[in-house]
């Protein structure tokens, strides 16, 4: 791993002149005051436009005088992750960006935010990013004011901004930066076919982003298949249906959902993970309900999904969880119940019938009391 220290206008000019090499991507930027003491780890993506940020970084950039400069030779467009590291070695934030050989990105880097300009691709990407950012900011403001009277406002705003978004892309359908940024960094990442089969100029599929577009379309196809699979599972496990069993093996022991559900008790099943903040916030509610109603024919079961077993066990110990757990479920259980977001709490009846789904906060105890007739 090489370490890079770049600063000053002379070196910036030298970097710019290096871009005569069509393989060279250059990043030039300014860093906000509260990020000025950071270094940046650089992770370079693979041919599938994915970053592996768990391994060693490709490079390290040291900030000097609130300026950041970096260059790398690449054969084709890929992705780069910039991860800011504090003086104590802890990550501060990270940002993914598409990097293109022969192009220069000029960035203004702030915590959790980066503004792009530079050569043509990044001018296009920056303009698209500004549209997306302004849209998200406006919708966030409306969500903060959420009430019955603002629901229609949010829907109307969303429709209007979506229309402007696509009108802009249609008018700029030959701009690689606009279309690639729109696909990667907005909801339209799930609409690759609309972007690249309908909106983009035909020559884009034959240009330098041909491989990127091919992958984006394949990812969209896989995402739609996954969503269809989840919808089917959700339908099979809807309220009123009998429970679907699953089995998980850990440390040589097999546990089944049927070890707990359908045994004559009401059972709250919490699909959770140690890395999930909202999951951890929900656990005290579940502990409280368990302690209050365990002698009234009510049990609670945790199912740790998408988590390292040792992390699940550590969280259980740290939080004083006193109800049973199925550890190391990974996707098992979540797939059977069509769960693509956690925490997800389900209440099963004594015979195994699904009584309630998507319980949270006070609704957990309210559901238990309702079905107990209290």
Walk me through the structure.
This protein is α/β, with parallel strands linked by helices and 374 residues long. The protein folds into three domains: 2-118, Carboxypeptidase-like, regulatory domain (Immunoglobulin-like, Sandwich); 121-234, no CATH class; 247-372, Glutaredoxin, CATH 3.40.30. It has helices at 9-18, 120-144, 148-171, 176-185, 192-199, 210-236, 277-293, 309-318, 362-372, and strands at residues 2-5, 24-31, 39-44, 59-62, 67-73, 78-85, 91-99, 104-110, 113-118, 247-250, 253-256, 266-272, 298-304, 325-326, 344-348, 354-359. Strands 1-4-3-6-7 form a five-stranded mixed β-sheet, with no helix packed on it. Strand 6 and strand 7 form a beta hairpin. Helix 2 runs parallel beside helix 4. Residues 1-20 have low confidence and may be disordered.
């Amino acid at each position: 791993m090489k370490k890079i220290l770049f600063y000053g206008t002379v070196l910036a000019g030298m970097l710019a002149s290096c871009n005569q090499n069509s393989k060279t991507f250059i990043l030039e930027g300014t860093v906000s005051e509260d990020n000025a003491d950071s270094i940046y780890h650089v992770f370079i993506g693979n041919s599938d436009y994915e970053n592996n940020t768990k391994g060693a970084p490709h490079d390290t950039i040291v900030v000097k005088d609130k300026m950041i400069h970096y260059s790398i030779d690449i054969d084709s467009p890929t992705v780069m992750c910039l991860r800011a590291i504090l003086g104590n070695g802890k990550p501060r934030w990270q940002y993914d960006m598409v990097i293109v050989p022969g192009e220069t990105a000029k960035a203004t880097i702030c915590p959790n935010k980066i503004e792009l300009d530079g050569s043509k691709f990044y001018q296009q990407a920056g303009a698209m990013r500004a549209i997306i950012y302004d849209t998200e900011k406006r919708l966030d403001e409306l969500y903060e004011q959420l009430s019955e009277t603002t629901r229609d406002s949010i829907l109307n705003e969303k429709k209007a901004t979506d229309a402007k978004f696509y009108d802009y892309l249609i008018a700029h359908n030959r701009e690689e930066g606009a279309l690639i940024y729109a696909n990667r960094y907005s909801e339209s990442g799930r609409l690759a076919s609309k972007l690249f089969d309908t909106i983009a100029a035909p020559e884009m599929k034959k240009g330098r982003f041909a491989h990127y577009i091919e992958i984006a379309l394949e990812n969209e196809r896989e995402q739609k298949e996954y969503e269809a699979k989840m919808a089917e599972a959700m339908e099979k496990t809807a309220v009123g249906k009998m429970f679907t069993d699953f089995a998980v093996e850990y440390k040589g022991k097999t546990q089944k959902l049927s070890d707990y559900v359908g045994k004559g008790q009401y059972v709250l099943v919490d699909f959770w993970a140690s890395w999930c903040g909202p999951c951890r916030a929900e656990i005290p509610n579940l502990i409280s309900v368990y302690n209050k109603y365990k002698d009234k024919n009510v049990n609670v079961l945790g199912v740790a999904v998408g988590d390292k077993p040792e992390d699940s066990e550590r969280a259980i110990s740290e939080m004083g969880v006193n109800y049973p757990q199925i550890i190391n479920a990974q996707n098992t259980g979540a797939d059977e119940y069509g769960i693509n977001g956690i925490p997800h709490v389900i209440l099963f009846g004594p015979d195994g019938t699904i009584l309630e789904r998507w319980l949270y906060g006070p609704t957990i105890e309210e559901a238990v009391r309702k079905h107990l007739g209290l």
